[in-house]
UniProtKB/TrEMBL annotation:
Stretches assigned to the EAL domain: 23-273
Keyword terms: Membrane, Transmembrane, Transmembrane helix
Residues of the full protein shown: 256 to 530 of 537
Keyword Transmembrane recorded: yes
Keyword DNA damage: no
Protein name stated in the entry: EAL domain-containing protein
Length: 275
């Protein structure tokens, strides 16, 4: 079946040919990326809006390929389509815990993004448990960020896994909250701890537009369900003040810190001031 398509390339315009070729290069590059040591992680602090304290870090994957930093927006999609994300995602989980472990004091968490493909694997819960045990962290120090859409793909199965993870003590955050189309009614059937308000609602949010109402609605929903709320993509003082006025619990964004390699965490302003 592999050869079948080859001759057809000539039927396409050069641009499509180029796109296919680039896609193929991405795919074969991704296959080698772990072994070739081309992946690394950066970490972005998450902050308590009342106290200003760092309450966690989100791990974000970076791919340096042929001297080019390829954005996750480009390669994660290819990794998901090819299921390479299952291997890559596991590498991220393991490495993120390992690198941030020295910073996991008190209630601080390391938040790791989990792709739907990872969550769907039957051995997912077990692999999380193994990672926790191998690194000897508290299960409550790990938070998994799962998008709304990922949960809707296979609701019953996902719900069951989240329950098992929460039973272990692992925290669950719903990422990009508000951008999917999840029925709010189903949220109460899910074992989650936190809602993560998508950046798009934070960026263009002032008193006159609906985005602020969406944030407000998310906060009151969370209050009713006993969940925490974190706002992502916070860039300005105005946004911080708005979120504080609305009694949002946590925030993350360039205003506070950009994502940095673990070795640079101690140099971040937020730590320099306090310690
Ligand atoms: P996300 O999970 O919503 O991550 C937040 C993105 O917003 C990150 O982009 C982060 O660098 C960026 N960001 C943080 N603060 C600000 C801000 O104040 N302003 C702006 N403009 N952007 C901000 P990044 O690192 O490019 O990641 C993009 C997406 O790629 C992530 O969105 C996530 O969906 C995916 N991703 C990244 N790492 C992983 C991973 O290890 N596994 C999986 N499955 N997906 C990942
Ligand atoms: Ca995330
Ligand atoms: Ca997000
Ligand atoms: Ca987002």
């Amino acid at each position: 079946a592999k050869d079948e398509g080859k001759g057809q390339f000539h039927l396409y315009s050069d641009d499509i040919g180029e796109a296919l070729e680039q896609r193929y290069r991405l795919e074969s590059g991704l296959k080698q990326a772990i072994v070739a040591n081309e992946f690394y992680l950066v970490f972005q602090p998450q902050v308590d809006l009342k106290t200003g304290e760092v309450i966690g870090f989100e791990a974000l994957l970076r791919w340096l390929h042929d001297d080019e930093l390829i954005p996750p927006g480009v390669f994660i999609e290819v990794a998901e389509e090819t299921r390479l994300i299952e291997t890559i995602g596991h590498w991220v989980l393991d490495r993120a815990i390992q690198e941030v472990k020295p910073w996991l004091i008190g209630d601080r968490v390391i938040a790791v993004n989990i792709s739907p493909k990872q969550l769907q694997r039957s051995d997912f819960v077990r692999s999380v448990q193994i990672a926790i045990e191998q690194h000897g962290i508290k299960p409550t120090s790990l938070e998994l960020e799962i998008t709304e859409t990922a949960l809707l793909t296979d609701f019953e199965n996902s719900a069951q896994k989240l329950a098992a993870l929460q039973e272990m003590g692992v925290k669950i955050a719903i990422d990009d909250f508000g951008t999917g189309y999840s029925s709010l009614g189903r949220l109460k059937d899910l074992h989650v701890d936190k809602l993560k308000i998508d950046r798009s609602f934070v960026v263009s949010s002032d008193a006159r537009n609906t985005n602020q109402k969406i944030i407000q609605a998310t906060l009151s929903l969370a209050e009713n369900l006993g969940l925490r709320v974190i706002a992502e993509g916070v860039e300005t003082q105005e946004q911080v003040e708005m979120l504080q006025q609305m009694h949002c619990h946590q925030m993350q964004g360039y205003y506070f810190a950009k994502p940095v390699p673990a070795a640079e965490i101690s140099g971040l302003d937020c730590f320099a001031e306090k310690q």
